[in-house]
Amino acid sequence: MQSRTLKNILLFVAVYWASTAWAETVAIIGTGDVAGALGPEFAAQGHTIIYGSRNPDREEAQALTNKTGHGASVTTQGAAAKGADIVVLAVPGILVGDITKGLGDLSGKIIIDPTNPLQRKQAKFHHAADTSNGEIVQAIAPDAHVVKAFNTLGWKTMIDPEIAGGPVSIPLAGNSLEAKQSVAELVAGMGLEPIDVGGIEHAHWLEGMAILLLNNRFGGRDSFDFHLRKSE
Ligand SMILES: NC(=O)c1ccc[n+]([C@@H]2O[C@H](COP(=O)([O-])OP(=O)(O)OC[C@H]3O[C@@H](n4cnc5c(N)ncnc54)[C@H](OP(=O)(O)O)[C@@H]3O)[C@@H](O)[C@H]2O)c1
Fold first, then answer.
1. How many Cα atoms occupy the beta-carbon half-sphere of 119 within 13 Å?
2. pLDDT tens, 160-175?
3. Which residues contact 59 (CB under 8 A, 6 or more apart)?
4. For residues 160 and 157, what is the distance between their CA atoms, to the nearest angstrom?
5. Between the chain's N and C termini, which has fewer beta carbons within 10 Å?
């Protein structure tokens, strides 16, 4: 009896330790589709989520916070980023530079950038940056560790990779191997497969994929969905 009690205590300690071993505070800037996909997933992995919203009192922001649970909260964008180890920029791609500038000092933090810089000109979508949003964010926050991730698939596939009919990969571009490793753990915790595709300069090509999709979808050609899958 005594040994069973001891075993149960050890099991409880092991499970508790595993769930809190890498518990980070994650600020998710934005409360839209991508925020609503990633926030609850990261919270379920034991991380504390703080949403950053232009209007934290808005009903939708409060509803997302309640749905996320695990001690999640919502505040302003700047306050969310200030208290976080990891900042996710789940915001309109065209605005990511200005929004990042408004977040204060991001030194030492991991920044996850899932944005696509889409600009519509003469009925066509264009890449809105000469370089990429990933590189723009890295230049604005040179002492942060930017990882481009989650921009090459729709939010529904992020939370339910089964709908893609097999494993779904998430390419990670960034200059810090350590930051990519941390993001890879978040990715794997969602049942997705991380693939390191090199430095942040590769973000440009990852961002271009959404432009292909939109120009086909709204240009009268075949509509398609896409995601990457690791080959053997
Ligand atoms: N939707 C997808 O399936 C998908 C997949 C991969 C990547 N992405 C990319 O991920 C990013 C977010 O996409 P999303 O679909 O989540 O967009 P969304 O649903 O429009 O949400 C964007 C959020 O950003 C905040 N926001 C909006 N306008 C803003 C402004 N002027 N200044 C500051 N914050 C503003 C809003 O939050 P508050 O109102 O709370 O401030 C809003 O909920 C985009 O760059 C998109 O290209 C989208």
1. 12
2. 999 999 899 999 999 9
3. none
4. 5
5. C
Distance CA 21, CA 87 (A): 19
83 in Cβ contact with 76 (< 8 Å): no
Range 59-79 average pLDDT: 98
- Closest residue by Cα to atom 31, ligand 1, is 95
How far apart, in whole angstroms, are the C-alpha atoms of residue 157 and residue 162? Answer: 8
Q: What is the biggest distance separating any 2 CA atoms in the chain, rounded to whole angstroms?
A: 76
129-162 as b/e: b if 16+ CB within 10 A: bebbbbbbbbebbeebbbbbbbbbbbbebbbebe
Residue 218 DSSP symbol: T
| Whether residue 100 has its Cβ less than 6 Å from ligand 1 | no
Q: Whose CA is nearest to atom 18 of ligand 1?
A: 32
Task: Choose among 132, 141, 82: nearest CA to 111.
Answer: 141
First to last CA, the chain: 49
Separation CA 226–CA 21 (nearest Å): 34
Structure tokens at 32: 């839209």
Write out the two tokens for 209: 């994929």
- CA 30 to centroid of ligand 1, rounded, Å: 6
Taking domain 23-217, whether its CATH number is 3.40.50.720 is answered by yes
